[in-house]
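User: quick one, fold this
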Amino acid sequence: MESPNAEVEPELLDDDIPEADEPTPAVHGDLIASDRIDPDAVKVLKRLTRHGHKAYLVGGGVRDLLLSHEPKDFDVATSARPNEVRKLFRNCRIIGRRFRLAHILFAGGKIIEVATFRRDPTQAEDNGVIVSEDDNGTQSLLPPPKERGDDADLLIRHDNTFGLPHEDAIRRDFTINGLFYDLDRHEVIDYVGGVPDLEQRVVRTIGQPDVRFREDPVRILRAIKFSARLDLGIAPDVYDAMVDQRAELSRSAPPRVLEEIMRLLRGGAAQRSIYIAWDVGVLAVVLPELTAHLEDEADGAERLWDRLGAIDRMHADGRLPGDAVLIAALLFGPLEEAVAGTRDPGGAFEDFFEEMVERLALPRRTRDRVRLIFAAQRRFDRARIGPLRRREFFADAGALCEVRCLADGRALPEWLDREKEPGSTSSPPPARRRRRSRRR
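Assistant:
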């Protein structure tokens, strides 16, 4: 029987990688202080290079360090193949079907993700790259042009071809995510013009925006996330392509779309993220129910922005609610409208989510929890807490109540204020056991 960690070789094997000289990148020294890099990531990088492999810190970690933010993850890109990484690290596991990745496990649940350099599998090996030069004479690499006709299907369905560092850089989505950091030389390696774009604080695609969004429409949501979370502008041609290609999101895998929506809500810039999504027209594609509520100027529709602002404040306080609370806060207005005046609120709730479940693959467990905490708000509004305190979903229902109070500018109810006091617990108290009377 094959081991679950058995190596699945990609299309391009070790000996097949071209020997051609790599293009010369722009190199920027002394932009990142070494003591800001996670010590475990440093261990991974040093061991890989000590055994003769190229290895760089890559992507969002480099971007965040350059922006003086605290990176959420420290990812590594390397010339080593996944099975070679596994041989070097006893604390390594190989994951992924579409493309094998190495996860190096450390104490406290920390994971350093190590990926082998890749290239766009649709790009012919002899297709080369384009060298672009801006008005200041700064050069950067662009992917070769692709057929852009309306009938051309550019959607990437597999991405499992090994490549060289410059090919790995240009297959990434945005210039700010295409940067490498060489730990030994203390240098940022920039094939794609990411450093100038960070200096100008702008989100720009690597290559033609319409092509990059048609290859993977989820990149549209990622552009919104980076713009909102990092307070960056969006290049005009990128913005136009987001508007033009927004309908392509319906071709993306629903779980990926849902996860990106959740990242918009979890990232500390939910208000700005959802506003940009609405402004671009993306919200009408992924959440038409919410868009209709906003554009019809339904009663209380403007409260959406206040609820999202409350979520951002809770995030800043280190108290971000769970996913069901975030979804309920996002959809509270249209949900209220859907169940208002109905004799069967449960049926109206299910009807509201019917198409959304298919469009976003929303898990039933999450939907059921949203229903419970949404229904609890009516009892909270009437100060009828009663047995709800003993229900498993009480903490989440209270979190949604807090979001609504903050959004409305209301003081927290006394019972919720007590729940938030130091030393209080958000879990329901154990139910009292009734003693049976002895038979005589």
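User: anything notable?
Assistant: Residues 14-207 form a domain with the Beta Polymerase; domain 2 fold (CATH 3.30.460.10).
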